[in-house]
Amino acid sequence: MPQMSPMWWMSLMILFIFMMLMFNSMIYFIFSSKMNIKLTLENKQLIWKW
């Protein structure tokens, strides 16, 4: 079993963190867009009520 080099571990960790950040930002973007759509719908309903 060959010994893993520290640089390899560092690159792996950086890659993992980067993927996690991308995943989180994607979820946040989808969630925020859905929230914005809901807000616009609510605003339109309010305008219709007025």
Structural commentary:
With 50 residues, the protein is mainly alpha-helical. The model has no long low-confidence stretch (mean pLDDT 81). It has one helix and no strands. The protein is rod-shaped, with a radius of gyration of 22 Å.
What sort of overall outline do the alpha carbons produce when their principal axes are compared? rod-shaped
Category from helices, strands and their pairing? mainly alpha
The strand count comes to 0
Proportion in helices: over 70%
Strand content: under 5%
Biggest sheet character: none
State the distance separating the first and last CA atoms: 73 Å
Q: In angstroms, what is the radius of gyration?
A: 22 Å
pLDDT under 50 segments (min length 5)?
A: none
How many DSSP helices? 1
Mean pLDDT comes to 81
What is the helix/strand order? H
Protein name: ATP synthase F0 subunit 8
Keywords: Membrane, Mitochondrion, Transmembrane, Transmembrane helix
Structure summarized in a few sentences:
The chain is mostly helical. It has one helix spanning 6-49.
Summary keywords:
single chain; 50 residues; mainly alpha; 1 helix; rod-shaped; transmembrane helix; membrane; transmembrane; mitochondrion
